[in-house]
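Researcher: We plan to redesign the surface later, but first we want a full-length starting point. Tokens attached.
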């Protein structure tokens, strides 16, 4: 049986499914659409950078596990911080300008238009090409820092390179990604 890619497919994933099914599931854990979108987008990045997407029989299940891992990582990171009290005295969910009704929630989970999905596919593919085009050590440092969240000193110790080299590799990767972003900017 041959799989025919859907117009909203990217690396074996149906982006409409990701935004229409996975995003609401993440939102139920976070109760914040912006945070849920961040988790989903971080999961996309980890999925793409893993290099395993070609051999996965069930890419949607795999992405769901990756998203769960991203969410757990973010929650562990946030536990290190103490929230500041709300000086205005209003809970964030009822602050002026915030809609908490069912329409706002439904609007947040509406799948993006075909144009937005095509733009997202192009941007993700461009970022993936940039990262794949980095020298192997540079790509490894970028992965360890930006995807796995390791500190620069820990990366230097793990890879047996100087902190200065870690910084140089990260700078190279970030500059290449910025240049690609500027080329794709509308």
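Model: Full-length starting sequence:
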């Amino acid at each position: 049986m041959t799989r025919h890619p859907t117009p909203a497919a990217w690396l074996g994933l149906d982006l409409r499914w990701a935004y229409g099914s996975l995003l609401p599931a993440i939102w139920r854990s976070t109760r914040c659409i912006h945070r849920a979108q961040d988790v989903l987008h971080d999961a996309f990045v980890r999925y793409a950078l893993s290099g395993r997407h070609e051999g996965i029989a069930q890419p949607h299940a795999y992405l769901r596990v990756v998203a769960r891992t991203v969410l757990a990582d973010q929650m562990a990171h946030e536990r290190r911080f103490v929230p500041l009290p709300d000086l205005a005295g209003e809970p964030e969910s009822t602050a002026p300008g915030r809609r908490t009704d069912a329409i706002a929630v439904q609007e947040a989970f509406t799948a993006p238009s075909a144009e937005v999905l095509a733009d997202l596919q192009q941007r993700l593919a461009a970022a993936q090409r940039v990262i794949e085009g980095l020298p192997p050590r540079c790509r490894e440092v970028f992965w360890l820092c930006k995807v796995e969240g390791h500190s620069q000193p820990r990366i230097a110790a793990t890879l047996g390179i100087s902190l200065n080299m870690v910084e140089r590799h990260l700078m190279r990767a970030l500059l290449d990604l910025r240049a690609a972003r500027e080329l794709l900017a509308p």
